[in-house]
Amino acid sequence: MDKKLHIIGGGMAGSEAAWQAAEMGVPVVLHEMRPAVGTFAHRTGHFAEMVCSNSFRSDDDERNAVGLLHWEMGAAGGLIMETARAHRLPAGGALAVDRDPFAEAVTARLLAHPLISAEYGEIAELPVEGNWIIATGPLTSGALAQSIRAETGAESLAFFDAIAPIVYAESVDMSVAWMQSRYDKGETEEEQTAYMNCPMDREQYYAFIDALLAADKTEFHEGETAGYFDGCLPIEVMAERGRETLRFGPMKPVGLTNPHTGVKPYAVVQLRRDNKLGTLYNIVGFQTKMKYGAQTDVFKMIPGLHEASFARLGGIHRNTFINSPTLLDAQMRLKSRPNIRFAGQVTGVEGYVESAAMGLLAGRMAAAELLGREVSPPPPDTAMGALITHITGGAEAKTFQPMNVNFGLFPPIDAKGGRKGRKDRYKAYTDRAKESFQAWLAAM
């Protein structure tokens, strides 16, 4: 029996799976088609390249489900989380990273591991023999996707994932914009001033919405449908849902004070640092399907960005995932071919952190099986346990859609209810989860 573990895909999930399995003593071959076969979204051949945001989102492990997932991954010796913390950038209460050094560091750690080797080139079909993890993410190659569809007998599910634009910091007019995190969040001045803020008054806001709605958009190919994931909606789709929608979403003006005027803005566009040098900032929540020419015209209407230069404009791509609740068992194995596991975004979790977490579990489960034992999934009252439960049977298969980690996936807890008791209730969730996760680790 081949005791090697083969992993297809060197993104967040594949990188984490490789690290976890190798650390358990199992030889790993990490297969990555880049740079031999590129994608429209990737720029390098590095493992764990961040193609959209540079943020791992909230780092609050006491009252936020994503922050709790950060904590669990750290407790389990996660490579992605350790490397993210080593390359973090000021971002208020979020964990944002310097994306290129982050990916370079992950790549170096993996290639330096004595039990990990890399093979480059596309794998076009599901392997018949050996032990495999498919962690190809939302940009699974067409040939492999077709092989997966042929095996599962189901049409691929898909939504469209949009990429936010990146601006050169030096091109932002700081006589209009200012630096501040919402509610001055963060323990240091650098954290409390982590975001650029571009204010709009009422007239400017509605002019922006009008331009946004009228702008030329990317058209979908015949037969494609735009089933967007609500956590990553293009801004024009949000605007179509109501003219006030953006003011209560990414452009909400709460927790911010304009030092130039002392007047509360009607709406605010925030930009978050995208690299350690502070030369690049991405426009928070501004995923878009506008055509490039329209993007520059519309975004330059934002006060402070009238002379902005863009390092990257927004984009949109098809994101495929399998119907995991019907196809995978509790060990993330494909029921029809139990030598194959799936991990990461292709399973229907959404986000860098969630993808890496499912890679962590898949790597541990696959390695344990090769070592002649079994690792049970974490309890469902943990963040990782809630996610794996969701994708392997907890979700309704007929309406299965990509999901971020959230407390709605956790078993209910007896704590104070109502809006005033929300913080106490979330703290109760995280306290319970940490105790449960530590017990799970100790039993391995």
TrEMBL record:
Q: Which SUPFAM superfamilies match?
A: FAD/NAD(P)-binding domain
The chemistry this enzyme catalyses reads:
uridine(54) in tRNA + (6R)-5,10-methylene-5,6,7,8-tetrahydrofolate + NADH + H(+) = 5-methyluridine(54) in tRNA + (6S)-5,6,7,8-tetrahydrofolate + NAD(+); uridine(54) in tRNA + (6R)-5,10-methylene-5,6,7,8-tetrahydrofolate + NADPH + H(+) = 5-methyluridine(54) in tRNA + (6S)-5,6,7,8-tetrahydrofolate + NADP(+)
Q: Which residues form the MnmG N-terminal domain?
A: 5-373
Q: What is its EC number?
A: 2.1.1.74
Q: Give a yes or no for keyword Lipoprotein in this entry.
A: no
Keywords for this entry? Answer: Cytoplasm, FAD, Flavoprotein, Methyltransferase, NAD, NADP, Transferase, tRNA processing
Q: Name one GO molecular function term.
A: flavin adenine dinucleotide binding
One Pfam family, short name: GIDA
What family is this protein classified in? Belongs to the MnmG family. TrmFO subfamily.
What's its job? Answer: Catalyzes the folate-dependent formation of 5-methyl-uridine at position 54 (M-5-U54) in all tRNAs. NAD-binding protein involved in the addition of a carboxymethylaminomethyl (cmnm) group at the wobble position (U34) of certain tRNAs, forming tRNA-cmnm(5)s(2)U34.
Q: What is this protein called?
A: Methylenetetrahydrofolate--tRNA-(uracil-5-)-methyltransferase TrmFO
- What gene codes for this chain? trmFO
